[in-house]
UniProtKB/TrEMBL annotation:
Keywords, ordered alphabetically: DNA-binding, Transcription, Transcription regulation
Segments forming a coiled coil: none
Keyword rRNA processing included in the entry's annotation: no
The UniProt record lists the keyword Cell wall biogenesis/degradation: no
Signal sequence, start to end: none
Protein name in UniProt: TetR/AcrR family transcriptional regulator C-terminal ligand-binding domain-containing protein
DNA-binding region per UniProt: 32-51
Superkingdom field: Bacteria
Cross-referenced PANTHER family: HTH-TYPE TRANSCRIPTIONAL REGULATOR RUTR, TETR-FAMILY TRANSCRIPTIONAL REGULATOR
Residues that span the membrane, as ranges: none
Domain named HTH tetR-type: residues: 9-69
């Protein structure tokens, strides 16, 4: 007997897979609910009833991707953990499907508020997954008290996304390692600690 919710789960997976394909191949502008239904071999009524808009599909897709992302790596050192994070980001951005998909979603987020919110939620989930590597480094005495864990993680991935979006150079593993090394060095120097000159107020998030 089919388990309860089995068909619903299959419909969702098929539609989200179709949405990811379109984003990777053609970009956000080509997303269309009727086309997604056709690609997923699902009734249009089902797609319209469940999601209603293409932005809702993208939001659901990002939520699924966040849930399925690999858990953080614990190496016992801040640099080791940040290097693992950078290599994971780099592997995602250089993937033939995932790289173009993220580029399309980021581009859409610049002009669509709902997509921007979905993207922020996705990255908040991933940052929360990796932030403990910084708090553990604080506990080990590797970095100063008051270091903003979220900002350290953002500092790792920012140069990699810059290269993705601008095409400024390749995204080899050495680039990922260098981003991790730079973020770790800055964290050890107190750049991300509360009260640092030009730094971050961890209570308010203000610079």
């Amino acid at each position: 007997m089919e388990r309860p919710g089995g068909r619903t789960a299959r419909v969702r997976a098929a539609v989200l897979r179709a949405a990811g394909d379109v984003l990777a191949e053609q970009g956000f502008a080509h997303l269309d609910l009727s086309d997604l239904a056709r690609r997923a071999d699902v009734g249009k009524t089902t797609v319209y009833r469940r999601w209603g808009t293409v932005t809702a599909v993208v939001t659901d897709l990002l939520a699924e991707m966040a849930a399925e992302s690999l858990p953080r790596t614990e190496t016992g050192s801040l640099l080791g953990d940040l290097r693992a994070n950078a290599r994971l980001v780099r592997a995602t951005l250089t993937d033939p499907r995932q790289g173009p998909l993220f580029a399309a979603v980021i581009a859409a987020a610049t002009c669509d508020d709902a997509t921007a919110r979905a993207l922020r939620t996705f990255y908040a989930t991933r940052i929360a997954e990796w932030a403990p590597c910084v708090t553990q480094a604080v506990a080990r005495g590797e970095v100063p008290e008051g270091t903003d864990a979220g900002e350290v993680i953002r500092a790792v991935s920012a140069p990699l996304y810059y290269r993705l979006l601008t095409g400024a150079g390749d995204l080899g593993e050495e680039v990922a390692d260098r981003a991790a090394e730079a973020a770790a060095a800055a964290a050890r120097a107190g750049v991300f600690a509360a009260g640092a000159a030009g730094g971050i107020n961890t209570a308010s998030g203000a610079r």
